[in-house]
Amino acid sequence: MDANASMLRLERLVKRYPTGDLALKGVDLEVPRGQVMALIGPSGAGKSTLIRCVNRLVEPTSGRIYLGGEELTRLGMSGLRRARRRMGMIFQEYALVERLTVMENVLSGRLGYVGFWRSFLRKFPQSDIDEAFRLLERVGLDQMVDKRADALSGGQRQRVGICRALIQNPQLLLVDEPTASLDPKTSRQIMRLICELCAERDLAAVINIHDVMLAQMFAQRIVGLRLGEVVYDGPADGLTAEVLTDIYGEEDWSATIQKDEGAAAEEDAGEPAAAETLRPDERMAGLT
Amino acid sequence: MPTQAKGGTRVWQRRERGRQLAIWAGWFFGTFIFLYCFKLISDKTIWFFVTDAGRQAADLGVRMVPPNWSYINELWEPLWDTINIATIGTLLAIVIAVPVAFLAARNTTPSVAVVRPIALLIIVASRSINALIWALLLVAIVGPGVFAGILAIALRSIGFVAKLLYEAIEEIDASQVEAVTATGAGRGQTLTYGIVPQILPAFAGITVFRWDINIRESTVVGLVGAGGIGLELNSQIMELSWTSVSVILLAIIATVVVSEWVSAKVRHAII
Amino acid sequence: MTDVSVALGRRRWKRPPLIANPLLRWGLVVGGAVYLSFALGTTEVNWSRVWEGLPRGKQFLLAFAPPDFVSRWDDILDGLLESLWMTAVSTVIGIVISVPIALGAARNIAPLPVYYFCRAVIAVSRSFQEIILAIFFVKLFGFGPFAGVVTLSLATIGFFAKLLAEDIEDMDAAQAEAVRATGGGWFQWLNYGIQPQVLPRFIGLSLYRLDINLRESAVVGIVGGGGIGATLNTAFDRYEFDSAAAILIVIIAIVMGLEYTSGHVRRWVQ
Questions:
Q1: How far apart are CA C103 and CA C24, in angstroms?
Q2: ipTM score of complex
Q3: What are phi and psi of A19, to 5 degrees?
Q4: Are B10 and A146 in contact (CB < 8 Å)?
Q5: Within an 8 Å CB–CB cutoff, is residue C192 touching chain B?
């Protein structure tokens, strides 16, 4: 596989729920290796469904999904398990198993690689343990190894979630609203961490995100989804008022766009002081 | 700490060694107890009967069909008695259980040192003893019949209703009670305005739940002579008239299903 | 609240009734009254027999002070130990069988045919009172504790599988989904995604069922299923209230002890 080959390719992806709701109306999308792509759109646009169709937590109704050339939609159970190992997923509200320790949660990312009895007895290979320690150190949680997941703060939990996804040694990260329940400062730290790690490991990432400003700040490419269709696909600075109206509907967007540029500049300088007072989620609250 | 450094690499185990060993020992010990108990029971069992049970069951099954449908006409009265035992027994239990619950709840009891332990003792004594044992006792005291059944059901239910109710009372929102007290209300007024509205849904739910259980229980108190359909069941089994027994069993199932349906409806209406 | 009272400048207020529909409200009240009068009217109470029995009731209460542990001690001990064995064995067997049934009866993880099958198993094992089951098992397996164990195990399945299945249905789906997304197998998914979430409830239910089985083991003996019930039955038959009181005190003490320990264990698990 050469460096420019697409990591993820969706062809005419359709998802119709048993209730009759058409969540995805034939989405075509291609994500090359190493690209961080943000998926924005109003609630109910199908962002979450799209991400879950990729690792088939939600079964697509029709269409094809290729991961590095392998078609995922045809795989049987064991093939799907092997494919899922190559896709790390980071969840909204963290989705850590709360009654397990931090270490057990991180190691659960290796479940696709070890047999049942090893995982049942918690006898993971030492190489996995080493990698878990390395990752926890990287995100600054190496002192929390034996804490139970429900004893951590939101930001700490999401870091554990990131470690769990990365220890899978994935080629693709699927990230579902990583900052939905975090405060603005922690949100930025988490987004920065995800993007840094993607750069370090040359990972492709699809990030569902509610917050347009964060998306513009961190993603190289933005895809706007509306009612199950792609309505924008381009660079972050291409998000004009017209584009946002296309995605979200009529609203005064000038403030969002302006402040974004200001905030992005400040971000490079250091502490995001403006963002603290800005409360981007409040601004977006009226839309959903 | 389950994490330890070993020659440069850090090793992680789920638990410390001592704790892990203790857990293994616990499993070993538990398995041993289970096997030992099983052996003691097995010694008292005639295994020939057990291996023969399949044939026996088939034999019994054959003798139970077809059900003697005409027998159902003799069952209406015992069924009516059964329902009455459950309903009146539940009502009687509530009358006694409500004051006991208020005496047992930490936040409403007049005295934590004296009254509360007595109330708790009443609850435990009532709960620990099955309705059938109460029935045995009451048949010996007040004689066989529906009355003994009602009392048995009531005595068994007091503990159940009072326990769940006093837990509900202890969980109420204290600030609401405080607000009522702050208006200058007396003890009784605080009770009716601050506490009762908060526990009313729980109370209704508990009552219906217990009534449902009591329908089941009242089908068996007759086995020891305390009235209801159990009395019929016992006599038909004694007479070995299996076709009638199957009618009784079907009648019991029907009653239980109906009572479950009623209680589900009522609980749904309350919530 | 009528127009007249408003016109007079006074507004009257009455608490709105619990049931808004007056027809239904009065229907329920009248229906309840009619039912109760009928029920009480058809309940035959032989008051002279009750009156005769009162001294015996007094005798029973007096028997608690002091109860007679001594004269039937061997019987009591035998019956009690047998009850304890039965409790232990039937609880373990019942729970072991319940777990797969509970998994099958949880709508969020089981396919529909399996779900219906497991729900049917639960419904069947719940539809009869333990004692009725015990009567039939005694017929099949002969007198003795084995029939009691089978009865209690079956009753445990209906209880345990139902409540555990409900807990599995209530679990946080996101945690289980996250484990599935890592590519783990089905058993790994159970072990990492579901087991930690339901473990506290599992242990709480096990202890609760142990408690219930002990109490029930005291009654299956009445119909021949082994345990302390037989001893108790004999004591009542012979009007040996002081021995009966001793047995009841022992049962209450064990139940209280179990309740106390299970409270501690539950707190420790949390």
A1: 42
A2: 0.81
A3: -70, -10
A4: no
A5: no
